[in-house]
Design goal:
With 125 residues, the chain is mainly alpha-helical. The chain is 79% helix and 0% strand. It contains six helices and no strands.
């Protein structure tokens, strides 16, 4: 069950990032399958196509969306940036004392600056 849920989440993320690159028809069917969790039969009835047609279209779209991520890597870049931002947030949180004052020693400042430079470099690429 966990594997199925991971696959659905992954398909949703792919659709969020690259869905606009699909045709409107492909987007509608993918949204129905991923976001509305409709069965192949329900989608087929709603769009007046065969169940096999829905299956084939979803398979092609999945292949296309994965190909975009392979070539462009936007999702992976987004994940790395979020991890870096989370690390910066934790570091800043750790540097705030109980009285609310920010204490940054040279080592912590250097690590924080390096992390920020990596993030800004990734944004520029």
């Amino acid at each position: 069950m966990a594997f199925v849920m991971e696959k659905i989440v992954e398909q949703g993320i792919l659709l969020d990032f690259y869905g606009p690159l699909l045709t409107e028809h492909q987007q509608e069917i993918c949204r129905a399958a991923v976001y509305e969790d409709l069965s192949l039969t329900e989608i087929a009835e709603q769009y007046g196509i065969t169940r096999q047609g829905v299956h084939d279209l979803l398979k092609r779209c999945d292949h296309t969306l994965r190909g975009y991520e392979e070539k462009l890597g936007l999702i992976e870049q987004y994940r790395k940036q979020n991890e870096g931002l989370e690390q910066i947030r934790r570091m800043l949180g750790d540097a705030i004392s109980d009285d609310g004052v920010l204490y940054m020693d040279e080592r912590r400042t250097a690590v924080l600056m390096e992390q920020m430079e990596q993030l800004t470099g990734a944004l520029e690429n």
